[in-house]
């Protein structure tokens, strides 16, 4: 099976001051036509046309200056035709739980965390290092509606004062017996035998790297074997890495995953393609899955009755705040910084002191224009772009039968298909269909629009 190889590298120049070490490394990286981050590390595609030239420059530098090169090697198997996905889960954050652990089943000593459902803004799957994977209620309801009965669900208690989408602990019935993986490293003369074995087993570009790098960490993406994948289309792999930590992964076949995406049970960004091989690759290590326990049916039914009580209780709905929306945007900026412009300067902020632009100031201070969602459907306009687009919008709306507040709103975002997103003076946000001049969507506030758009389901 095809694979790609990447190298993140740096040179240790043996300088006493760290800032001088970093500066020298950055200068060297740029001198050979490569890019570096702020601490001097550079990432190289080992299959690129320039790869051999860069490796030779690193080797020559080390020989000439008596220094050593260190690196991290990554191998990623081709998943372009993969028929399986891993469910990507975010860690359960402190704001989403009260840090209490509840004993659920005394006989099996099964426990679950207590969460604040309203604090989970994005509606994405969550995980806890010991207590498993948790999915939103929409995921459970989809499985029930589609007759996917190979998954077990147990309600996770919600201690929050405000209403939020409930979460369920989830585990497939089918266990995937094995996983292929490889992690290793070499450093110094004591690892020469390991280096020879690793190079001969894994092959690829490692033979050349062994000649250049005195220290190298090796990471190969986890893969699975075709013969182990469950016919039902959903399974789990569980490995115990430490006594207090479990690695639980949920795997979903493509046809089931696409249905979940289509019906909004899960977002596409929460499903990561995974390589499934016909046979183990040379040098791979086979890890066997541990059996994951789950509460019995009686316990799950009892907790389902508790769930129904809390969803029918009269609790105030959560109000999305600018702080919540910006929290989501910061996470997206960490993943895709190129989608965000620079933040406004203090002088530019002084221009934005008139309503309704004043309500947008927290977002301009974060980035003066950015792609809101990862699909590229919505783009938040910079202040200058918004003023310009608003003039055009008001000119276009003169002949349309719109309410005065809609006609006098401002354009804060544009869509890929040409639609505009309008902010009215009353604070509501609406999407205007450019062809029909009708509003197709509405949000209660700018924060509500941002939070529900940054990672759409």
Brief account:
With 457 residues, this protein is α+β, with helices and mostly antiparallel strands. It has 13 helices and 24 strands.
Largest sheet: 7 strands, mixed
Low-confidence stretches at least 5 residues in length (pLDDT < 50)?
none
Shape: globular
According to DSSP, the number of beta strands is 24
The oligomeric status of these chains comes to single chain
Structural class: alpha+beta
Termini separation (Å)? 32 Å
Work out the helicity level.
25-40%
Average pLDDT taken over every residue: 89
Approximately how much beta-strand content do the residues carry?
A: 25-35%
> Compute the gyration radius: what is it?
26 Å
Give the helix tally: 13
Notes on the structure:
The longest helix is centred in the N-terminal third of the chain and has 15 residues, at about 50-65. The protein has 13 helices and 24 strands. The chain has helices at about 20-30, 50-65, 135-145, 190-200, 205-210, 255-260, 295-310, 320-335, 345-350, 360-365, 385-395, 405, 445-455; strands spanning about 5-10, 40-45, 70-75, 85, 90, 95-105, 110-115, 125-130, 130-135, 150-155, 165-170, 180-185, 215-225, 235-240, 245-255, 270-275, 275, 285-290, 370, 380, 410-415, 420-425, 430, 440-445. Strands 1, 2, 3, 12, 13, 17 and 18 form a seven-stranded mixed sheet that branches. With about 450 residues, it is α+β, with helices and mostly antiparallel strands. The radius of gyration is 26 Å and the shape is globular.
């Amino acid at each position: 099976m095809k694979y790609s190889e990447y190298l993140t590298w740096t040179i240790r120049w043996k300088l006493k001051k760290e800032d001088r070490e970093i500066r020298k490394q950055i200068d060297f990286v740029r001198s050979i036509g490569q890019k570096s981050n702020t601490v001097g590390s550079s990432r190289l595609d080992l299959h690129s046309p320039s790869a051999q030239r860069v490796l030779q420059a690193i080797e020559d530098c080390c020989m000439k200056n008596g220094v050593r090169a260190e690196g991290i090697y990554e191998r990623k198997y081709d998943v372009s035709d993969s028929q399986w996905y891993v469910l990507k889960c975010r860690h359960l954050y402190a704001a989403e739980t009260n840090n209490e652990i509840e004993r659920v089943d005394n006989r099996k000593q099964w426990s679950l965390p207590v969460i604040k459902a309203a604090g989970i803004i994005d509606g994405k799957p969550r995980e806890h290092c010991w207590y498993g994977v948790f999915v939103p209620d929409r995921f459970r309801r989809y499985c029930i509606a589609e007759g996917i009965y190979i998954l077990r669900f147990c309600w996770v208690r919600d201690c929050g004062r405000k209403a939020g989408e409930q979460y369920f602990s989830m585990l497939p019935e089918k266990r995937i017996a094995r996983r292929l993986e490889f992690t290793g490293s070499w450093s110094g003369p004591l690892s020469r035998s390991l280096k020879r074995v690793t190079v001969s087993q894994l092959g690829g570009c490692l033979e050349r790297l062994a000649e250049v790098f005195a220290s190298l960490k090796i990471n190969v993406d986890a893969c699975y074997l075709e013969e182990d994948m469950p016919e039902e289309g959903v399974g789990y792999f569980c490995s115990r890495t430490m006594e207090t930590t479990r690695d639980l992964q949920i795997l979903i076949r493509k046809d089931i995953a696409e249905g979940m995406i289509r019906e909004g049970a899960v977002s596409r960004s929460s499903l990561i393609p995974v390589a499934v091989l016909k046979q183990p690759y040379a040098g791979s290590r086979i890890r066997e899955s541990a059996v994951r326990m789950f509460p019995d049916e009686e316990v799950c039914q009892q907790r389902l009755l508790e769930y129904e009580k809390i969803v029918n209780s009269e609790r105030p709905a959560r109000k999305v705040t600018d702080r919540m929306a910006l929290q989501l945007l910061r996470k997206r900026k960490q993943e895709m910084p190129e989608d965000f412009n620079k933040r406004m300067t203090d002088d530019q902020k002084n221009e934005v002191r008139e309503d309704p632009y004043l309500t947008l100031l927290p977002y301009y201070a974060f980035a003066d224009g950015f792609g809101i969602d990862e699909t590229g459907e919505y783009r938040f306009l910079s202040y200058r772009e918004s003023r310009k687009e608003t003039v055009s919008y008001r000119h276009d709306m003169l002949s349309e039968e719109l309410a005065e507040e809609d006609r006098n709103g401002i354009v804060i975002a544009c869509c890929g298909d040409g639609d505009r997103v309008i902010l009215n003076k009353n604070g509501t946000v609406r999407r205007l269909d450019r062809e029909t001049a009708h509003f197709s969507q509405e949000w209660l506030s700018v924060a509500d629009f941002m939070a529900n758009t940054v990672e759409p389901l």
